[in-house]
Structures are given as C-alpha cells and as structure tokens.
Amino acid sequence: MTTFESLATGAQVGTVLPLLTAIVQRPAWSAKWKKIVAVVAALIAGTVTVAADGGWDQFQHGKLTGATILGVLAASQTSYDLVWKPSKLAPLIEAFTTKGTPQQAG
C-alpha cells in the first residue's frame, strides 16, 4: 500500500464517520465533549482501518499507519464541518437517537 492509498482509505472512512459518531453523541453535550468523542472515534476507526486493510502486520509501517489514521481524523472533522453539520443530518441523528422528550433532544 502506498501513502496515497492510505490517505484515500482514511478519507473514505473519515467521510462517513461523523454520521456514526452522531449515534452516540447527545445534543446536550458541550462542544468540548463532542470533539473529544469525535477525535477518539477517529483514532479508533483509523486503527481498525489499518488492521482491516493490511492486517495487524501493517502496523510495522509507521508512515502508512500514521497516514491512514490522520486521513480518517482529517476527513471526519472536515466532512462534519463542511457537509454533515450544515446539512443538519448529523445533528438530526443525534436528536433522533437521544432518549427523552423532544425538548431534551433539541
């Protein structure tokens, strides 16, 4: 795998990750906690992506591992800010998956 392929794979995973992260996040959480959850999710998703793409042996290649993990992190933050938040889809998922009254979810 090349660095470009690692970045591309990371970007693909990172682009959809905010929608998955929105399932566990809650509208009432502070921006700080939402950011922490998003970054931790991206690091976990990046690690899983490396393992899924090249097996556990892939971690021997620090440059490719780093590129994949950073690709997931960058793409997840960027796609959330540019696509999922303005489209209201991620916030809608957060509200939909929050138990309680509509007032608590909004």
Description:
The chain is an all-alpha fold and 106 residues long. It has one domain (3-105). The protein contains five helices and no strands. It has helices at residues 3-24, 31-54, 62-84, 89-96, 102-105. α1 (3-24) crosses α3 (62-84), α1 (3-24) packs across α4 and α2 crosses α3. The radius of gyration is 15 Å and the shape is elongated. The N and C termini lie far apart (44 Å). The model has no long low-confidence stretch (mean pLDDT 86).
Q: Give unreliable regions as ranges.
A: none
Mean pLDDT: 86
Number of helices: 5
Question: How helical, in percent, are the residues?
Answer: over 70%
Q: What would you say about this model in short?
A:
The chain is an all-alpha fold.
Helices and strands in order:
Elements: H1 3-24, H2 31-54, H3 62-84, H4 89-96, H5 102-105
Helix pairs in contact: 1-2, 1-3, 1-4, 2-3
Keywords:
106 residues; mainly alpha; 0% strand
